[in-house]
Every structure is written in C-alpha cells, then in structure tokens.
Design goal:
This protein has helices spanning 3-12, 20-36, 58-66, 71-80, 96-105, 116-128, 178-182, 198-203, 206-210, 232-241, 275-284; strands at residues 41-44, 50-53, 86-90, 108-112, 135-138, 141-143, 147-151, 161-162, 171-177, 189-192, 216-220, 245-250, 255-258, 268-272, 289-290, 293-294. The radius of gyration is 18 Å and the shape is globular. An eight-stranded mixed β-sheet has the order 5-4-3-10-11-14-12-13. A four-stranded mixed β-sheet has the order 6-9-7-8. The chain has a single domain, classed as Vaccinia Virus protein VP39 (Rossmann fold, 3-Layer(aba) Sandwich), CATH 3.40.50.150. The protein has 295 residues and is α/β, with parallel strands linked by helices. The protein has eleven helices and 16 strands.
Length: 295
C-alpha cells in the first residue's frame, strides 16, 4: 500500500472520521519513532491489552493508525464473544484477533499460525498479555487432511500455500484438519484467514461446522482462492448448506445486515446461524475502549 492509499485508509476509517488529526499524529509518530528506535514496541491496544509491533507488520501497524485495522470484523469479535467461550483463530499471524478474544474478552482461544517466524511474534503477544492459561497456540497449517505442505515465508500477512519454492523462501510445514486440531472443544466463533486456502480448511471441518454450538464464522473471501482453482461461490453455497447466512456488521449501531452473497464491500464475510442468539449477544455486550473512544 503506497503512502496516498495508506493515508486515505487512515482518514476514512470509521474510528478516525471525527479524530483525523489524532490519527495522523499516530501515523507520523510511528513512522518517525520506528526509524529512530527500530525494533519491536509494545503499544496500547483495546482496553488494557497491548500489541508488540515491529516496522513492516502491515496488519499490526494498521491497528496503531486506526484502533481496529479490520473494523467490522474485529468489532464483531469484541461484541459477540463472552468469557469462557471458545474461539478459533486460523491464520493468526502475530495474534491481533487472539489478543482481542483472549486478553480483552477472556475467551478460550485456539490460535493457529504455520509460519515459524510469525508464530514467534504470536507467542510474543501471548506472553506480553499474559494469556497463556486461556490460549493454545499451534505452529501448524490447516487443511483437509494430515500432510506436509509448502508455505511462503517472506510475504508478511499474505504468506500462503505454494506448490514450488518461489525465490528460495518457501518451507515445508505440517498441516492437519480443523476437526483433528480442535478435538473436543466446541467453538462458538471461528476466524479463517488463509489467503485462498479456505476451501481446504472447510473441507476438513465437517464435524465442527455441523455442530450447532458454532454460531459464526468470519472468513476471508477476497478472490485469492482462484490461485488454487477454487470457486468462492461454491464455498459460499457450502456454508449455506451448513445452515449459515452471510451478514455485514455495523459496530456503532450493533446491527447485523443480511446479505445475498459474500460481502463484496470487504475482504471478509461474516457467516451466522441462530441469528437471534447472535443479535442478543452483540446488543448486550459491554463497551470497549479504543483510542479513547467507547465502542
């Protein structure tokens, strides 16, 4: 993302619309400070949680600029989850969603990240927030079966499964099905961000998706599946067959808006079943403090 696109994203972000100068200050302070004192910095996140952020972590630094980088989806996690719920974070990256679920809400979290270097950053954020007792972290990939697959390692938030060692940076990592990894846990919410590999994740999650205790799935559907020959419409229809419907979320109003297909205004789509239970959850959730604002 170039400078103009970054600044446009910051200024148009819903949490910054009435606080644009404060947002710009955070941006320029980070740009200057991270050059003067390079390395990881622990920054304030939501409520009393913190994130350990290094220059170049595009998703994590987005939270510095905006409060919640993926506003609708992160807000939904905060408003939907309750303490002692089970949340599964697939493609956890450095642990932003894991921190929201476990450190802020107190939900039991299964955090899954296949890239070893990124996994070490995830563990740093688990340690920083002292959430070892409610987070189980797995340095593994997720797919339809137990196997070894090759992953890129140098693409920050968009590392993904590949068939060949492109540029010498790919590594072999173990992969297992979500049904096997989750075991006897019964998640109420799953987030899937695997850069086009979502069809494979869903193929290995038949038992979990059939369990009526699972009320919601946040899944990245941004066209990346095409690189593997997967059809996102077929994946959407499969979620419908499991009893889910697609929605968008309006955090300020805590409203869920039904959609006819995947969310075309966002890279992620929110799938929900038992909509009345979910509405009750988001309506009655406590407010959270983000950059001095309550949400």
């Amino acid at each position: 993302m170039n400078l103009l696109n970054t600044l446009s994203f910051i200024l148009k972000h819903p949490l910054n619309l009435n606080h644009k100068w404060a947002a710009l200050r955070r941006y320029f302070y980070w740009q200057i400070g991270s050059r003067l004192l390079p390395g990881a910095v622990a920054v304030r996140f939501v409520n009393d949680s913190r994130l350990l952020v290094s220059p170049g972590m595009t998703g994590a630094t987005g939270n510095i600029y905006t409060g919640l980088h993926e506003f609708e989806d992160m807000s939904f996690v905060l408003h939907f989850l309750r303490k002692n719920d089970v949340f599964v974070d697939i493609g956890a990256n450095v642990g932003t969603y894991t921190v929201l679920a476990a450190a802020v809400v107190g939900a039991k979290t299964l955090s899954i990240e296949p890239i070893p270097r990124t996994f070490s950053h995830l563990m740093d954020n688990i340690n920083l927030n002292n959430i070892h007792d409610i987070v189980e972290a797995y340095n593994i990939g997720v797919g339809r079966k137990n196997e070894i697959l090759k992953f890129t390692t140098a693409l920050d938030t968009i590392n993904h499964v590949v068939s060949d060692d492109i540029g010498g940076g790919a590594i072999n990592m173990p992969v297992n099905s979500l049904d096997n990894i989750v075991g006897e846990f019964e998640p109420v919410l799953i987030k899937i961000d695997v850069e086009g590999w979502e069809t494979e994740v869903i193929a290995g999650a038949e038992r979990i998706l059939s369990n009526q205790s699972l009320l919601a799935v946040i899944m990245e559907l941004n066209g990346s599946g095409k690189q593997y020959g997967y059809d996102e419409l077929a994946l959407h229809n499969l979620m419908v067959d499991y009893g889910f419907k697609s929605f968008s979320y309006l955090p300020f109003n805590r409203l869920l808006v039904p959609l006819e297909e995947k969310n075309t205004q966002s890279g992620n789509t929110l799938y929900i079943r038992d909509i009345e239970s979910v509405i009750e959850r988001v309506k009655t959730a406590s407010a959270f403090l983000i950059n001095g604002q309550q949400l």
